[in-house]
Amino acid sequence: MTKTQKIEAGKVYEITIGKNVTTVKILSVERRVNGQLVYECENLKTNKRMTVSGSKRFIREIKSEKPAKVEKVEKTKTVAKTERADGTYSGLTAAFIVLRDAGEPLNIRQIMERINERGLANLAGKTPGASVSAAIQRELKNPASRFVKAGKGLFAVR
Question: Is residue 115 domain-resident?
């Protein structure tokens, strides 16, 4: 930013952090004893507070009609547990069925062996185990998840 532009509290600016660029909202501006300006900011991408000393890192002011802070909405989407026309299930639902019937925690290799033995899912691709594992990990982020992490590499049902 040019020296003539004043950085004000309540406005949104683009700043540099190392080689990266992020967007911050200025919460307060303080002048230190040595005369240096210090800016208390909130990073709008991570919602974390940070202190920026000096105005050299500020690139430009962001002026938009959009609200500056975007609230993260928690996903509560439920996965369909219905059987497909060919009698199979999705990999995630098949993993749930296997874990429910096992009654004990299993690793992804054991889960995939049991899915294949029972013919619960028709999973194509080079690494179907990785796909099912990734789907379980995604669902674990949801508080209403059907799965729990029972140990390193082990999954179980609630």
Answer: yes
CB 90 within 8 A of CB 114: no
Q: Domain check: are 95 and 58 in the same one? A: no
pLDDT at residue 133 above 50? yes
CB atoms within 10 A of CB 10: 10
Record the tokens describing residue 142, joined without a space: 């949801």
Question: CA–CA separation, 147 vs 111, rounded Å?
Answer: 13
| Gap between the Cα atoms of 59 and 53, Å rounded | 14
Residue with the bigger pLDDT between 71 and 85: it is: 85
Question: Looking at the domain assignment, is residue 98 inside a domain?
Answer: yes
- Domain count of the chain? 2
Q: How is the beta sheet containing 20-31 ordered, strand by strand?
A: 48-53, 37-43, 20-31, 12-17, 58-62
Question: CATH number for the domain including 42?
Answer: 2.30.30
Domain range for 113 is: 91-157
Q: How many residues are listed for the chain in this entry?
A: 158
pTM: 0.49
